[in-house]
């Protein structure tokens, strides 16, 4: 089974240290945290560092760098600095800038800033951004031309953007240091209805194996054994499991169950 990380989006109402502790409680192999550079304090860094030390978990990613027109890069650089201080492997980036060249220029600057930190700068595509599909993401990363530039694949955004499994399989494995993982309904929101797209992404994701996405094929198309950040934003889960530890455990169990069914099926086919 791929290493599994608890994404911050599973526990959006809780701070970084709680997410890290919940990840360990549920048996995840790593954690990811949300960093708001305007509100992040040295105390939060210390609490996150203490939680990482106490649990022994690595930090897979920090999020989110959101590139927007008319904004500088100082806040984005601070997210990278905080992630580097905590030993994060990746920083998640999205872009609402309509000019691909401007997005590439910002990403290139952030890649240079991340040099020596051990972090990759991973661009996520999705119809909720101006980098709407894998084709556009690849073009931007090619413009960036920096070895720290990477692409983040999320099953719900793959499906909603019309990106194919074949396109994922054709990616250079070096461009995909990790991926997100979740399931979702077959019902796709209107890509021109921004509110519906956001609702789908932040409230309507489903546990692995309980939706309609071709997760087996998606996983097979990704580089072998890369870490998977279980990004399961779900109003149903937040309602059913208000306790962060219980919610993390429910997500971990469903994900392990999906991997177990996959393993059992493969074993049966090989008999």
Automatic annotation (TrEMBL):
Pfam families: AP_endonuc_2 (PF01261). It comes from the Bacteria. The keyword Zinc-finger does not apply. InterPro entries: IolE/XylAMocC-like (IPR050312), Xyl_isomerase-like_sf (IPR036237), Xyl_isomerase-like_TIM-brl (IPR013022). Residues 20-222 form the Xylose isomerase-like TIM barrel domain. Signal peptide: none annotated. This is Sugar phosphate isomerase/epimerase. One of its GO terms (molecular function) is isomerase activity. Keywords: Isomerase. The keyword NADP does not apply. Gene3D superfamilies: Divalent-metal-dependent TIM barrel enzymes (3.20.20.150). It comes from Sphingobium subterraneum.
